[in-house]
Automatic annotation (TrEMBL):
It comes from the Eukaryota. The lineage of its organism: Eukaryota, Fungi, Dikarya, Ascomycota, Saccharomycotina. This is Zinc-ribbon 15 domain-containing protein.
Amino acid sequence: MFLFIPLICGTREFNSAYDNKPEHVGLYCPHCHNNSVAAVKSKEFFTFYYIPLVPVHWGKQLRCSICSWKQDFTGDAELDNMTGYQKPQ
């Protein structure tokens, strides 16, 4: 007898807020030109049957909630430097 069992695998991202500073939320997006970019901690895992198994990527990113634009950054100094060049609202 032949038994068919589908294998469901892929990747999934888990994001959380980088910090609670109000100046790191609502930043200007260079792609869609909205004030919808926030700093997040991002972790991407390879999943098997929706169970995260192997980490593929982790780091800190600026991410737009409207157009999904993202850019990596390394630390607080680089993030503060990026927020200094924001377009005025």
